[in-house]
What does this fold into?
Amino acid sequence: DAKTTQPNSMESNEEEPVHLPCNHSTISGTDYIHWYRQLPSQGPEYVIHGLTSNVNNRMASLAIAEDRKSSTLILHRATLRDAAVYYCILRDFTTSGTYKYIFGTGTRLKVLA
Amino acid sequence: DSGVTQTPKHLITATGQRVTLRCSPRSGDLSVYWYQQSLDQGLQFLIQYYNGEERAKGNILERFSAQQFPDLHSELNLSSLELGDSALYFCASSVGLAASYNEQFFGPGTRLTVL
It folds into this structure.
């Protein structure tokens, strides 16, 4: 089962900031928080990840709550090309020393022109 | 372009048949992951290989199998196909196994339709 909870859908106007929330109340101390997005008719692509501190990259920012039980992906200026399903993921470690991603249902972001 | 290639892009076959999906990881990536995405189940992890060895299993049916070859490409074999196996199948690759952080790069997928 997915370890994260996200709203099913959100809407944003073009050129405005978007805040996509994610709850991960069962997160452990060593779990990274990952965000991927899936554009229409494409495979998922990496957006950002973080552990404790807020993170920024060219695509987005990730704000992590102090207790790490929730996080928010921030798109500073949404464009029509940002319309996608956004997945917040925690890794599920296996007994063989590797991990697997458990994808939830994600948040479908609609960007209005 | 993620650097991960998958063939074929589309596959249409009949129930009971067997198909093979192929994946070539990014240059230098040793880990390969297979995922199934269907309308009712979302994106499901199937199996992971690292440098030729199976390392993690997810919700993979016994009718499905995979392998990773010495040149690091991977194949997912689906047999005794059922209507419910119709889905998008994604392959992803990453540099390593699990140390610290490994971003996964996803291919464009193979759309399988079972009639």
In short: Chain B has a mean pLDDT of 92. The longest strand of chain B covers residues 42-50. The two ends of chain B are 31 Å apart (CA to CA).
